[in-house]
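Please decode residue identities from the backbone states below.
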């Protein structure tokens, strides 16, 4: 497994694979506004731990914003226009978040990205996300845009097969990763979050993942 070195917040885009780009510090200047937007979203649709189809409780707590949201239970993984806990539509995607996703995608070579779903994930120490592919979307031509806030995390970026070699990216507060095109269906995940303290977020990491689901 390869590991890329850390970059400061003034670093230029870092290509990591065909169609995949790391944007160190891209969201840093907007961090407080992003956190306020996340707080507004989760006030309406609180964080919760989805159940996998196999009956396991996911360690990452999740919410959603946009026209549809990603959900999981015994019936499977899917997108739904309503929050199953409230029966109400998911909160609208704030313009700030939509613009950030669009700008990051454009910086990575994917102009005119128009996300209709934003997964809001909360990691506490020990939480992790196993290697997986994002295959629940109908449109694989659009990229995935992932924004990291809070505690540092190790993002794993593999190949098109689960057994392919994995690159480990040490992501920090404000970093953005974009992958699409030839890399759209690469396996990826997050190693267990290590304990620590972030000046704005304390002992947690928040992740925004933008997608074109419908």
């Amino acid at each position: 497994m390869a590991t890329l070195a850390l970059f400061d917040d003034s670093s230029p885009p870092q290509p990591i694979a065909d169609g995949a780009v790391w944007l160190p510090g891209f969201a840093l200047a907007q961090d407080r506004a992003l956190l306020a937007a996340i707080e507004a979203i989760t006030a309406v649709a609180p964080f919760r731990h989805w159940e996998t189809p196999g009956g396991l409780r996911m360690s990452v707590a999740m919410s959603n914003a946009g026209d549809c949201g990603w959900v999981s239970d015994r019936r499977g993984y899917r997108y739904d226009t309503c929050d199953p806990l409230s029966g109400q539509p998911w909160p609208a995607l704030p313009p700030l978040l939509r613009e950030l996703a669009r700008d990051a995608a454009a910086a990575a070579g994917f102009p005119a990205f128009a996300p209709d779903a934003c997964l809001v994930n909360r990691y506490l120490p020990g939480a992790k996300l196993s290697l997986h592919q994002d295959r629940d979307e109908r449109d694989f031509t659009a990229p995935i845009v992932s924004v990291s806030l809070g505690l540092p995390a190790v993002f794993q970026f593999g190949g098109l097969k689960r057994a392919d070699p994995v690159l480990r990216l040490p992501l920090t507060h404000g970093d953005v990763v974009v992958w699409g095109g030839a890399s759209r269906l690469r396996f990826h995940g997050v190693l267990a979050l290590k304990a620590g303290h972030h000046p704005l977020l304390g002992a947690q990491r928040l992740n925004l993942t933008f997608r074109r689901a419908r």
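Observation: The CA atoms of residues 22 and 177 lie 5 Å apart.
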